């Protein structure tokens, strides 16, 4: 039997009703031992109940060979598949069937998907983009700029051509919605709602922000897409239009409102690259997202999936540095059979917090060849 690999050493979380509850390793979950308390905290391990009481878990499936064949095998056995990136396949699997999925031909390993959170709320504007515009004449034309984030205020004037009112967003995929009426899922995915440039342009002409169901409740994704590719048309408060512009104000835009689960983020990256291919343009995808979960050496499913998708004409950039002063990481060196102690401080719990407090502790060896 193949192994379900879970790299977490311990996970604890505190909410008023379940303070101090320990979440089980995923091997236990595969045998149906998922505690009710854990299901109450989807931010910890994102899940969704099925009608018959099962729990759908988002996972990365690592394939022994290029992942398209394994993706088809998973679909053939009734599992929900997102996308394949090299040997990494994103999927959602009933926790009761994880071991069955792990035993399928070509499956090397199954790894859990964890939540990410927005970063880049402290951005540095002094990158001299104006020199690129003025000295090189480059303002992003002929390139797709994509953002996988919390969504987009689709009717913001910075995302429309000021002369024609045509949407500069060529495609927008809201992963959080279920298609209704005339809405459609993306052709290559089985969830979410896709809006095209024509649909966005027609909705903008109505002047009604409720014409489309998608939105950016958090505001972070709109900020990111505007910083990367806004044209400054909405500059106001006494300042002339086009004074405050993004780095690539002439770029084509593709926006993804992701659920910020690692597997869905990878699906979003692939979506941007696929739509850029339709447009015949190179693309850069911005991920101003982060997590302290999982390995930090490029070996987790999200990192390896992005590496498979990226290449010439397919660039992924990520925010960094927001939390460098917070001391999240510690390191110690141990000889064989030696033990060590690292002390950390836990902040006060807020009982009225919208998102429950989560404390996660993980340990990873520096040299992976010494692990089993």
Textual characterization of the structure:
There is one protein chain. The protein has 9 helices and 16 strands. Helix 8 runs parallel beside helix 9 (301-309). Residues 5-45, 120-124 and 368-372 have low confidence and may be disordered. With 372 residues, it is α/β, with parallel strands linked by helices. It has a 6-stranded mixed beta sheet, with helices on both faces. The longest helix has 18 residues, at 262-279. It has 2 domains: 10-113 and 330-370, no CATH class; 118-318, Rossmann fold (3-Layer(aba) Sandwich), CATH 3.40.50.200.
Summarize the structure.
This protein is of the alpha/beta class and 372 residues long. 21% of the residues lie in helices and 21% in strands.
Low-confidence sequence ranges: 5-45, 120-124, 368-372
What is the helix fraction of residues, given as a range?
A: 10-25%
Distance between the termini: 16 Å
Our count of domains comes out at: 2
Oligomer: single chain
Order of helices and strands: EEHHEEHEEHEEHEEEHHEHEEHEE
Q: Based on CA inertia axes, which overall geometry fits?
A: globular
Gyration radius, rounded: 22 Å
Number of strands: 16
Biggest sheet layout: 6 strands, mixed
Structural class: alpha/beta
Largest sheet strand order: 11-10-12-9-13-15
CATH topology of the largest domain: Rossmann fold
CATH architecture of the largest domain: 3-Layer(aba) Sandwich
| Chain-averaged pLDDT | 80
Q: What is the CATH C-level name of the largest domain?
A: Alpha Beta
SS element count, helices: 9
User: How would you name the CATH homologous superfamily of the largest domain?
Assistant: Peptidase S8/S53 domain
* Portion in strands: 15-25%
């Amino acid at each position: 039997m193949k192994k379900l690999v879970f790299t977490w050493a311990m996970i604890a979380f505190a909410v008023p009703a379940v303070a101090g509850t320990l979440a089980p390793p995923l091997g236990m979950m595969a045998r149906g031992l998922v505690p009710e308390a854990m299901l109450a905290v989807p931010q910890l391990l994102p899940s969704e109940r099925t009608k018959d009481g099962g729990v759908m878990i988002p996972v990365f499936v690592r394939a022994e060979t290029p992942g398209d064949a394994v993706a088809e095998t998973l679909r053939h056995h009734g599992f929900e598949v997102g996308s394949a990136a090299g040997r990494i396949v994103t999927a959602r699997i009933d926790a009761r069937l994880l071991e069955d999925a792990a035993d399928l031909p070509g499956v090397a390993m199954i790894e859990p998907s964890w939540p990410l959170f927005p970063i880049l709320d402290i951005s540095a504007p002094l990158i001299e983009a104006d020199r690129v515009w003025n000295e090189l004449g480059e303002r992003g034309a002929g390139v797709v700029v994509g953002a996988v984030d919390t969504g987009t205020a689709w009717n913001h004037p910075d995302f429309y051509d000021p002369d024609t009112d045509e949407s500069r967003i060529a495609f927008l995929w809201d992963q959080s919605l279920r298609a209704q009426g005339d809405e459609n899922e993306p052709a290559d995915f089985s969830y979410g709602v896709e809006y095209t440039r024509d649909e966005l342009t027609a909705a903008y002409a109505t002047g009604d922000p409720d014409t489309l169901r998608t939105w950016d409740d958090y505001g972070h994704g709109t900020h990111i897409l505007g910083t990367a590719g806004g044209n400054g048309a909405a500059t106001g408060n006494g300042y002339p239009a086009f004074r405050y512009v993004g780095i690539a104000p002439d770029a084509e835009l593709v926006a993804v409102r992701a659920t910020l689960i690692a597997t869905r983020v990878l699906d979003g990256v692939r979506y941007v690259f696929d739509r850029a291919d339709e447009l015949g343009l190179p693309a850069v995808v911005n991920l101003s997202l982060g997590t302290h979960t999982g390995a930090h050496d490029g070996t987790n499913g999200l990192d390896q999936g992005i590496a498979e998708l990226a290449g010439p004409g397919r660039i992924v950039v990520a925010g960094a540095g927001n939390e460098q002063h917070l001391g999240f990481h510690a390191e110690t060196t141990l000889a064989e059979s030696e033990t060590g102690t690292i002390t950390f401080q836990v902040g006060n719990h807020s009982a009225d917090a919208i998102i429950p407090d989560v404390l996660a502790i993980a340990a990873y060896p520096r040299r992976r060849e010494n692990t089993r």
